[in-house]
Design brief:
Belongs to the plant acyltransferase family. By secondary structure, this protein is an alpha+beta fold. It has 12 helices and 16 strands. Helix 2 crosses helix 4, helix 7 packs across helix 9 and helix 7 packs across helix 12.
């Protein structure tokens, strides 16, 4: 696919906005340090002004007034802590076209091809040089359009990012803002003095890969082989599970006399974790850690104000042996997830903020390739997020999902764009492991 950039401009707020430094909470600072990529696809409507850049930019400028931090830049305060400099420099808006058609993307797996639909960000000039938000409208030969979004993670998590995009789409249709953003991150400041009360294994290093199982090493007398210098090539795929398949998976919670009820999400996440362990061929004694992105908005007491703008993502991390996950019923994995999520209450989350406060270097805790790679796994669920609500005046998207998965072992759970009760799992695994995962994910 060849993408031709036609126009590139900075869009600034339509009115004067506060010129202030926005303090970042600890949970704003331990997120991956890049622009989170997502892509929307829209079918043509026949409208003469279909995705007119002027309409898009006018709505964007209006939305940047209440969401003014999005138009800013990062900088370090006098203590060296990263904050958002709300200087209204603007967001990047790119207009492009291609001779490809939307159907060329098939099931919209977040491959490198998809990444071309989002502006690339040049990080080489330092953290104050690039926009926090980069946008690209790409016109396809079939008449359809994609909207590529790259959002710097310090600025917003998925919930806040969608709050912005959906407000932008509303304002492009001439509507007023329905829920103003709440812009004050000191609500997530650590207690003084900090009082961490838990171990917080979510921030401790994940289990390392055992190159040989203990039993095999005992039999052969071999020591662990040296790790290979080159990481194995990764593949990205997306798998749709129908409502019937999800119901069958949920019914497996009753196997072997289990009486505890698990949610569809817990059973699906457990199934993905279990299937990944089996596809990777992990030894029975290999520990594996699951990283579950967990929204703290409704778990904190009192709950954060509606419209809180920032990152409120904590991490739930059940750990189990691959043998237990593979040999026990699927509900065993779901049970580990259920129990771990149950611990994520206000007391635990406040303790996590305090734990981060006393760490000498938060950069050491930033998630990256080392976090999710084999034998571990990350799951981010967008199933309850309003990812299909961005109607700019020409209808809802036929698909919205990640515009790339940067790390092997990271996965996303996506809701159906048609409301048919299905869910899709987008995942990155080593190529050899993906071949097995292709079939294991459907062994329900």
């Amino acid at each position: 696919m060849i993408v031709n950039v036609k126009e590139s401009s900075l869009v600034q707020p339509a009115e004067e906005t506060p010129n202030v430094g926005l303090w970042n909470a600890n949970v704003d600072l331990v997120v991956p340090r890049f622009h989170t990529p997502s892509v929307y696809f829209y079918r043509p409507t026949g409208a003469a002004d279909f995705f007119d850049p002027a309409v898009m930019k006018k709505g964007l400028a209006k939305a940047l007034v209440p969401f003014y931090p999005m138009a800013g830049r990062l900088r370090r305060d006098e203590d060296g802590r990263i904050e958002i400099n709300c200087n209204a420099e603007g967001v990047l808006f790119v207009v492009a076209d291609t001779t490809s058609v939307i159907d060329d993307f098939g099931d919209f797996a977040p491959t490198l091809e998809l990444r071309q639909l989002i502006p690339a960000v040049d990080y080489s000039g330092g953290l104050s040089t690039y926009p926090l938000l980069v946008l690209q409208v790409t016109y396809f030969k079939c008449g359809g359009v994609s909207l590529g979004v790259g959002m710097q993670h310090h600025a917003a998590d998925g919930f806040s990012g969608l709050h912005f995009v959906n407000t932008w789409s509303d304002m492009s249709r001439g509507l007023d803002i329905t829920l103003p953003p709440f812009i004050d991150r000191t609500l997530l400041r650590a207690r003084d003095p900090p009082r961490p009360a838990f171990e917080h294994i979510e921030y401790l290093p994940p289990p390392a890969m055992k190159t040989l199982s203990t039993a095999a090493a005992a039999v052969t007398g071999d020591a662990a082989s040296k790790p290979t210098a080159e990481p194995a090539p990764a593949a990205v795929s997306i798998f749709k599970l129908t409502r019937d398949q999800l119901n069958a998976l949920k019914a497996k919670a009753k196997e072997a006399g289990n009486t505890i009820s698990y949610s569809t999400y817990e059973m699906l996440a457990g199934h993905v974790w279990r299937s990944a362990c089996r596809a990777r061929g992990l030894a029975d004694d290999q520990d594996t850690k699951l990283y579950i992105a967990t929204d703290g908005r409704s778990r904190l007491r009192p709950p954060l104000p509606a419209g809180y703008f920032g990152n409120v993502i904590f991490t739930t991390t059940p750990i189990a042996s691959a043998g237990d996950l593979g040999n026990k019923p699927t509900w065993f994995a779901a049970g580990r997830i259920h129990d771990a999520l149950g611990r994520m209450d206000d007391e635990y989350l406040r303790s996590a903020l305090d734990y981060l406060e006393v760490q000498p270097d938060l950069t050491a805790l930033v998630r990256g390739a080392h976090t999710f790679k084999c034998p571990n796994l990350g799951i981010t669920s967008w199933a309850r997020l309003p990812i299909h609500d961005a109607d700019f005046g020409w209808g809802r998207p036929i698909f919205m999902g990640p515009g790339g998965i940067p790390f092997e072992g990271l996965s996303f759970i996506l809701p159906s764009p048609t409301g048919d009760g299905s869910m899709s799992v987008a995942i990155s695994l080593q190529e050899e492991h993906m071949k097995l995962f292709n079939s294991l994910i459907y062994e329900i």
